[in-house]
Specification:
CATH superfamily: P-loop containing nucleotide triphosphate hydrolases
Number of helices: 7
Radius of gyration: 17 Å
Distance between the termini: 21 Å
Number of domains: 1
CATH architecture: 3-Layer(aba) Sandwich
CATH class: Alpha Beta
Shape: globular
Oligomer: single chain
Helix content: 25-40%
Structural class: alpha/beta
Length: 229
């Protein structure tokens, strides 16, 4: 069974002369433990697709199923809770809370849900991310690469069904970008996570299990990569 299924996803913005078909009848499924890259030129619809997969925007038509749950059949508040518990997000612009330290930022999704963090898992996660000696540091005291590691930790803290990453290496130099890519692969291997990455970086695509290519809002290819995850 697939962890996530996109069924006939379409998204239209505007009307008349301003009408834009950002996404056109896109369908695919992703199995547990897959590392998938979605690539395409600017304006191809890849960010729109990520937002629909993550419940951040509503499709004009089509459905998204995560762990068998129809995401858009949920009411708004139910969908917000579902997102927090089942979907880990990693963005290009880290989005860390400046007054919270590393450990607090990582645990934030659990704390918002009034859940007790699994201390052993969180400690292991922080160590795996190479942040052991930074756990009490604030985001302003971290490098860009370290901040993105914290964002990865936050995405993994709830042990979500799926992790969605939007250009996670976009604000990093090549060395830090490579480290982040290796950490995402490690999440698949060590924590059995399912990861979908939106990226224009072909190094990301080269490491993925599968590469989905979008063009003008359509899914034009779905190919197996050469991942060494």
């Amino acid at each position: 069974m697939n962890v996530i299924e996109a069924a006939g996803l379409s998204k239209i913005y505007g009307k008349g002369s301003t009408r834009v078909e950002a996404l056109r009848d896109v369908s695919f499924g992703v199995a547990q433990g897959e590392f998938v890259a979605i690539v395409g030129a600017s304006g191809s619809g890849k960010s729109t697709l990520l937002h629909l997969l993550g419940g951040l925007d509503r499709p004009t038509s089509g459905e998204v199923y995560i762990d068998g749950e129809n995401l858009y059949a949920l009411k708004e508040k139910e969908r917000a809770v579902f997102r927090r518990r089942k979907i880990g997000f990693i963005f290009q612009s880290f989005n860390l809370i400046p007054v919270l330290n590393v450990e607090e930022n990582i645990q934030l999704p659990l704390l918002l849900d009034h859940r007790q963090p699994d201390k052993g898992y969180i400690r292991d996660l922080i160590a795996t991310l190479g942040l052991d000696n930074r756990r009490k540091h604030l985001p302003s005291e971290l490098s860009g690469g370290q901040q993105q590691r914290v964002a990865i930790g936050r995405a993994l803290a709830y042990k979500p069904a799926i992790v969605l990453a939007d250009e996670p290496t976009g604000n990093l130099d090549s060395a830090n970008g490579r480290e982040v890519l290796e950490l995402l692969k490690l999440a698949v291997r060590q924590y059995h996570q399912t990861v979908i990455v939106i990226s224009h970086d072909m190094n990301v695509a080269a490491e993925a299990d599968r590469v989905l290519r979008l063009q003008d809002g359509r899914l034009v290819s779905d190919t197996r990569g050469v991942s060494r995850v």
